[in-house]
Amino acid sequence: KRELEERREPGFPPHTRIAVLRIEGDKRPKLDPFGFKDAEALGPVGAMDKKGKKHFKLLLKAASSAILQKAIHHALEQLKGRKVDVDVDPLEL
């Protein structure tokens, strides 16, 4: 019960929905922020995996599954041609 309360204030699941999109490639993707409407989009930010391969991460945060799904769809439409892994409500950020 205490953990649930601690997760409410910063807006972590189960109180909100979160998705992390891992976008492969060396070039930072440009995304239209206006398509995310009711979702909060953070990134994309550059990162390296354990093998030294560059990729980008985009964090999407929404009040409901439906809003999150629309935000994911909006991002994937703009990322056509790139490999993207989507993790909904990840255990770790």
UniProtKB/TrEMBL annotation:
Name the record gives this protein: Primosomal protein N C-terminal domain-containing protein
